[in-house]
Design a protein that fits this description.
Blueprint lengths: L2 H7 L8 H4 L1 E8 L5 H11 L8 H10 L3 H9 L7 E6 L2 E6 L8 H8 L4 E7 L6 H12 L4 E6 L8 H12 L2 E4 L1 E4 L7 E4 L4 E4 L11 E4 L14 H18 L4 H5 L3 E6 L8 H10 L7 E2 L4 E2 L7 E9 L8 E9 L1 E3 L3 E4 L4 E4 L4 E4 L2 E4 L2 E3 L3 E6 L8 E3 L10 E3 L3 E7 L5 H14 L3 E5 L6 E4 L3 H14 L3 E5 L4 E6 L3 H10 L4 E3 L5 E5 L2 H10 L4 E3 L1 E3 L3
Parallel strand pairs: 1-3, 1-4, 4-5, 5-11, 6-11
Antiparallel strand pairs: 2-3, 7-8, 8-9, 9-10, 12-13, 14-15, 14-23, 15-22, 16-21, 17-18, 17-23, 19-20, 24-33, 25-27, 25-28, 26-27, 26-30, 29-31, 29-32, 30-31
Helix pairs in contact: 5-13, 12-13
This protein binds guanosine-5',3'-tetraphosphate.
Guanosine-5',3'-tetraphosphate (G4P) binds next to helix 3.
């Protein structure tokens, strides 16, 4: 059975169109340095989207020369932008959504995860679960996103596989089923046993880009010791784990995986191409096709005739020659055709979608057709915002795209007062991208900027300078916390606002925010005004 057959057979949320069923839209989550970039590159390589290893980084280099802020990324060795990479292999159409790895950019990551149907969790074999892995995992769990675990860098000295599995399973309260098992780790690394396929995958010296060097079928696990190049004592040590893992294989339950309770585990080395093809096959065979998406009004199924989608990300200035912004839209249902008129629900206006973009490997193409599960880039001049819903005519509002209350608040100092207008535009654009949140005090006065992590201020500073020509710096804001406020009774909310005009601001969407000078003050107000809800989370587009 090929991947495509499996995908068609797999029940994917009422869709019957094979084009929809063969879509796999996923993201890779990991702690910085675990190997996400390397793995992404290898997935693209085996997916035929790029021809040479190193191309993902090369692409990064080209992008980075564009503006100063990319240099931050380069200096720190982190990826701060998200993008989409599409490739096709064995009849499966993969949409890989890149997530920024640094914890400072978590909001962008959360939004990206709202647009996927599965995730690959990359874990460094020497480090096990790290802080960012845990955080991202929790987001996936909240959404019941199925997760495939890839334990990377087995070619380097790492934890013993059994200990690693134990730590991950207990640390994340997740059932794990190893699909393969490494023969030796670090300097003793000799290959991987593919348990389901009953074969051993061996490296071919010097062939860094070959999927696997040699594949040796085995009739029984003890055959491992007979394979030339695998010494008896390494085989003997591996065998204990291999036998245990094979015993666990029967507990693999596709349903539990798809519900997010159980994760199949691959041991591999992204750098040395081990486990990468197996991972792709697993995504093709087991990961769900496009899943239903919840809207305020109803649940939307991918197989529905009418096209629906939502904006989960906006990127400004992708092309420095045009002041366009690209809104990334996840299609939730239907078959999109170029030139279609779609209702921009928040605006109540129709827009003709004439030049949607799909992202193939390094290139972009104008899409004539796209299906539920696909990500389209729509160039626009700021009409489309994160959280916006597009439909053919129905009034729908997809949920699950959050804004988080910022952790740090600052005020911006502009060096050249003549550039205030450009600054406002820059802040507006970058707020839309999720780099910063902008709060405007209702009583007047300077805006207050909020971010999740301090690195965002650096990105903001260099992008505002590079892309809008406005040098700025930041100073401490007189407030410490921002909370969205609401109340069941509008009169009570108004009364609170009137009594606290100096402490109230609006966010970019006009929602009311209480700016507290301290945690203590927030608690005090919460107790004194029990009818007012102070919220650290807000759904976009509400
Ligand atoms: P990230 O995107 O998750 O931050 O990680 P990235 O892929 O950039 O990998 C971080 C480092 O780990 C890189 O080394 C990369 O080569 C290395 N690496 C990734 N996968 C493997 C693996 O399977 N085995 C081994 N041994 N190393 C791996 P670097 O020295 O920081 O960068 P570079 O100079 O190699 O590019």
């Amino acid at each position: 059975m090929t991947n495509a057959d499996a995908a068609v057979i797999a029940p994917a949320a009422k869709a019957t169109d094979p084009e929809i069923l063969r879509r796999r839209t996923f993201a890779i989550i990991s702690h910085p340095d675990a190997g996400k970039t390397t793995l992404t590159e290898k997935l693209l390589l085996f997916g035929g989207a790029i021809q040479l290893a190193g191309a993902v980084k090369a692409r990064g280099e080209r992008r980075r020369t564009r503006s100063d802020w990319m240099q931050i990324e380069q200096q720190r060795g982190i990826s701060v932008t998200s993008s989409v990479m599409t490739f096709e292999r064995n009849g499966i159409y993969y949409n890989l959504l890149d997530t920024p790895g640094h914890s400072d950019f978590s909001e962008d990551t959360y939004r990206t995860l709202s647009a996927v149907d599965a995730a690959v969790m990359v874990i460094d074999a020497a480090k096990g679960i790290e802080s960012q892995t845990r955080k991202l995992f929790e987001v996936c769990r909240l959404r019941d996103i199925p997760i495939i675990t890839f334990i990377n860098k087995i070619d380097r000295p790492g934890e013993d596989p059994l200990t690693l599995l134990d730590d991950i399973a207990s640390g994340l309260a997740l059932d794990l089923v190893p699909m393969g098992w490494p023969i030796g780790m670090g300097p003793d690394f000799r290959g991987v046993v593919d348990l389901a396929g009953m074969r051993v995958l061996l490296p071919e010296e010097g062939e860094r880009n070959a999927p696997f060097g040699r594949v040796v079928p085995i009739a029984s696990l003890s055959d491992i010791a007979e394979i030339p190049g695998i010494d008896a004592d390494i085989a003997a040590r591996a065998l204990e784990g291999v036998e245990l893992a094979q015993g666990a294989l029967s507990t693999f339950d596709l349903q539990a995986f798809r519900e997010g309770h159980l994760s199949p585990v691959f041991f591999g080395s992204a750098l040395r191409n081990f486990g990468v093809e197996q991972l792709l096959d697993a995504l093709g065979n087991w990961a769900p096709g496009p899943l239903p998406r919840v809207a305020v009004q109803r649940t939307v199924y991918p197989g529905e005739d009418q096209v629906t989608g939502f904006v989960f990300k906006v990127q400004a200035n992708m092309d420095p020659n045009h002041r366009d912004r690209i809104a990334f839209v996840r299609l939730c249902s239907g078959r999109f055709k170029r030139g279609m008129k779609l209702l921009h629900v928040r605006d109540g206006k129709y827009m003709t979608v004439s030049s949607p973009t799909l992202f193939f490997g390094q290139g972009r193409e104008t899409a004539d057709e796209a299906y539920a599960g696909d990500i389209m880039g729509l160039p626009n001049h700021g009409t489309l915002r994160v959280g916006d819903t597009l439909t053919e005519k129905e009034v729908l509002k997809f949920t699950g795209i959050p804004n988080f209350a910022p952790e740090l608040l600052r005020r911006v100092i502009i060096e050249d007062a003549m550039k205030a207008k450009q600054l406002n535009r820059a802040l507006d654009d970058l707020a839309e991208e999720g780099i910063v949140q902008v709060f405007t005090p209702i009583a007047g006065g300077r805006q207050i900027l909020g971010v999740v992590g301090v690195l965002q201020f650096e990105v903001l500073q260099s992008r505002v300078k590079a892309e809008y020509g406005v040098p700025v710096s930041f100073e401490q804001a007189p407030v410490e916390l921002a909370r969205w406020i609401s109340a069941d009774d509008p009169a009570k909310l108004q009364k609170f606002v009137d009594a606290h005009r100096g402490e109230i601001a609006t966010d970019r969407d006009g929602a009311l925010v209480f700016l507290a000078e301290s945690q203590w003050m927030l608690k005090y107000k919460g107790e004194k005004f029990p009818d007012i809800k102070f919220s650290a989370l807000r759904e976009r587009g509400e």
